[in-house]
Give the backbone structure.
Amino acid sequence: MKWTDKQEKVIYKNHKDILVSAAAGSGKTAVLVERIIQKVLSQDDPCDIDRILVLTFTKDAAREMSERIRKAIDNASKANPGDMRISRQKTLVHYAQISTIDSFCTYIVKNNFQAINVDPDFRVVNPAESALMKQEAMDEIMEKNYEENNDIFRKLIASYKTANSDQNIRDIVSNFYEKSESFAWPDKWLDEISNLYDVKDFSDVLKEPWMEKYTYYKRMVINDILERIDRTYIFLKEDRHCPGFADLIKQDGEVLRDLVSVTGTEEFFKAVKEASGKFPRFNKKDADPDTKTLVQKILRDPWKNAVKSIGEDVPDDINEILYEMQSAKPLVDMIIRLTREYRDAYNRIKDETNVLDFSDLEHDALNILVDDDTMEPTEAALEFQTFYEEVMVDEYQDSNEVQEVLLSAVSGDSIGKHNYFCVGDVKQSIYGFRQADPGIFMKKYDDFADENEDHIRIDLNMNFRSRKQVLDITNETFASVMERDMGDVDYTDEVSLKYGADFLDVDNHIYDPEIYYVDPSQEDLEASECENAFEYESRLITRRIRKLIDTRFPVQDKRIDPDTKKEEKFMRPVRFSDIAILTRSATDKTGRMTVLLKALQDYNVDAVLAERSGYFESLEVETIFSYLEILDNPDKDTFMVSVLKSEIAGLTNDELMDIRRNDEGSNFYNACRNYLSEAGDDKASTKSKLIYFFELFDELRIRQVDMLLPDLISDIYDRTGFLNHVSSLPGGTIRRANLLKLLDEAENMENNSTHDLYSFMDYIRKRKKYNEEIDMASLLGEEDDVVRIMTIHKSKGLEFPVVFLIRAGGQLGGGSRNEKMVFSPKYGMAIKNVIGGNYKVSYNSFYMDALKFLNTMEEKGEEQRILYVAMTRAKEKLIITGKYSGGTVDYSMEDKLEILSEVGPTLYEKIGTNNYMSWILPAIYNIKDDNGSNKYEIIKGSIEKYVSEEAEISDRNEIEKLRLNTLLKTAASEDMEIIKKQLEYKYIFGPEHEFKNKYSVSEIKHLEIEKNEAIIKDSETNDNVTLIDETLIDKTLLEKNMIKENIFVTNDMDECNQTEDIHDASSEKTKSKVNPGALRGTAMHRALEGLDFTREYSESELFAELDKMEESGFLTKDEAAIINRRGLVIFLQSDTAKLLGRAQKENRLLREQNFVFSEELKKIFKGLKELPEDFSVEALVQGTIDALIVDDDGITVVDYKTDRVNDEETLRERYTRQLQLYGEAAGRALDLPIKDLILYSFRLEKEVQVSRL
């Protein structure tokens, strides 16, 4: 691989502390891995792999890095077979410290447990257990303080309780504790918070860091407005030729210049209050009213409001700030005391069960490495410093104080060994909610700006991921909105993304970004039958994706040339898996994601929500929870009915109502028992279901007392067949994984001394009560061809050819949500000022408003970084959608964007921005291309106008041109004549070319279904059909009609002809194309093929037989998992199975018979296609018959169906044509008439007769 000069510097620079500021797409992971490999393989300055500490922030990243390094060492060893040092690395790589920070802390604690008096057999508590322990600790300390009846505690409760609940105080203490844990020394930080309130006069307040920062920002707001005024003056005077308005703006500037010149803080705030009344009025009567409105509303009002707001935040009596802080001191100290008590109680509870959480691991590791009195490295730290040749940290921008102090302690700085290597990008620091501190990165960024003998900073800004169009809109957006005091970076040309990728057709316009502002009128909503703007936006997104797929939008890919064995680029059509839909939030409390998924489904866009919430609400988990609840206590009617209605028992609503009518007084458990003894023979079907259900239920109720929890749940899964059932449903892989995850939870609880069912269910109930989610299982692989919907946070580190950033007009995150209190890790904690005898009257203190403002600055800065991450995920095409209501009754959106794009946004406006569109649109609106035209089209998001058929055809033509141009550019000169002949070739045959040479029975069946408008989405698409590759058919067979003499074909012939055998459910190629219904059908057919119908299987014998099929490889693991075992039990008791058994015993049974026969097209498509009478062209018909029973007087055809149908007639409509064709094939081959055509439905649990031709 060819590296840039800067990348080589990163790879080979040694013996310095290094900070690599690596922008999005700059190849930082590849460079980091290469640096490690080169250090290990170096001949001049070698380093064993286990002497390098490498820390990443995810286990997946650590695993990937380890694997790449292992492969590189293996390759080096093969290339240098005699090099013993390289051979030794093959052993040492298994001991290399390439891990997450949590794993490294665990390693430190495990190996130094004696230093901090920790039991070495500790385990890490899971989040759910931790939440329950925290709840217990909180209850304990609150009860203790209520008993003590402390005056300050009572005042705190009275001040903050709501509706006689102390939950506000509980939340404050819990949140305060979590904040404190992100600091290296939490107690010291808590002391500092208390000390902030030790102010004796106002001069002490002025020295506080929060006050200095607040004043700095407010002055900066004024200075920024003044710069805007200067730009506006030039714009109005020279561009708009409005000297009168320009003079007015100039007078505004003079007011602010006087304000800027004020030096003292008290004087500054007083001057701000006075300034808001000094702005001049414009009364010139002959002024153009439209221009006046634009100047006043878009330009002057924002800065006048900003000045007014600053003045209103400061009390008239400046000493009131001092009073507020002094009066808050006792309450703040009480909160700090409660926080410490809460921490101590939580720690004691963890100690009792010998568990640690991740925060414990970090702080225990820190206590092992650093003496908290002297702040000097301990002996253990010095050992690490001596051992490690280099300490490397990836994603350094996401570090917090604890991690930074800890890693500094194991690096060699204190012994003069400069070996601390950090790589990251502050523009991608988006984990403030995890207490990440981008300030740590920026301090080092500034300190390392100038290289010296100890350290160096290397900037990697070349982007190798994205097309130039993606980089341009990203750079142009952030050059306008991101600055050091908001976003932590001055987004200058020096830090902007530089194009370094190598794309084909670089300048093609189809890759230009698209920005849709979606603001439908009521008329638009009614016309499109959308209930709201987001449903309208979802339809727009869906149609745009559909258009990309249907027009075969080209994306670049790589492959290995089979001849040269070299990697080459090529263009291919976009796939669903190339597309990501990114959103700021994917929580579905408002139902938005459900709306989006439905819109995608309606347009046949395969998509999945890649978030993992909603575990407890998933149908399969709720069902098993209900079953466990009634095993614990069968008198719980809600859970009993839920289970009886599920597939476990299979009762219908009518049957449940019948049970209730039979016994209206008892609980449902007893009502079912009474029904079994009282209902008549006409209720045999319902009774048989209940008998089947209670047979297992009664057994498990008795056995569960002595069973281990995992064994009990496994028994439920296996004996009810429920695990296999959910596996066969749409989304079956995830559903199955969710149930297996529940099994894992049970095993964890078993290991933690919770052995009984009641305790387990109580644990689950508490998790649900406290909203402690279990992550939804996620088994989505890269090979799955689906559109990914995910949060921007989840997309970090990923890349996609096409990215949709949706809801860009939606409300941003952030904001101080706890109105009673505001936290800032940097600037302390502020509370409302409480007055009145009952402490019910309160107002925001000045300190509280100041912290809100400072937090808003940081939150909006993080939102800018989140937007940066979203935009830089796109490799080739970026599409942004969202609401933008820039216009009012006074002016249009275009007017506002035109002006803002000329004069630029103020810091005050950036702070006040509440959506991404308000940053993006003004930044790019008026940017010109090389021809002087607007570079970006801001599109009114209309479903009809912008996704019309005409637009699709136009785009399709452009894309086809691109494909052909690429082909011609890459074609060798000697191939050009061949290409020319192919393009000029004219087809010589007539209308028969519209038909294929062969048709499967499945294709013909689906034509009939479409004709009857009876397509059902969950139908079994399997139908046991093998597809023959047309290129392998000898077309002379059609002409000579030879194939009629040999209709049934051997398996060998079938295998050589087929290209996609739907029976092969283990095939990777098939997995991505076959729906769950088809896979279920395949598995069932395969099992039936292997069963001996002459045997009478018991349930246990049948299950054992299926297990043998899996062990022998006759069934794949996936097939065995989704077989409907209960359905097989019922089938083997049916008349159909007995008929097959008799035939098998008498050697009259033929199974899985493949056939091919020739027939005239007009007969094949009779009633389906209009063909002329003299149309005599023939085609092959082929398929596979499940079972044939051959008697002297005729043939019986049997076909198995697993469709989810509710009645016999639907099944007949779907499959009559298919079975008639099976009969035609069998009759021709065996020269016998057809006696019966039988469908056996596993859904209806019965056979269905079909009429013969």
Remarks:
- The chain is about 50% helix and 10% strand.
- The first helix runs from residue 5 to 12.
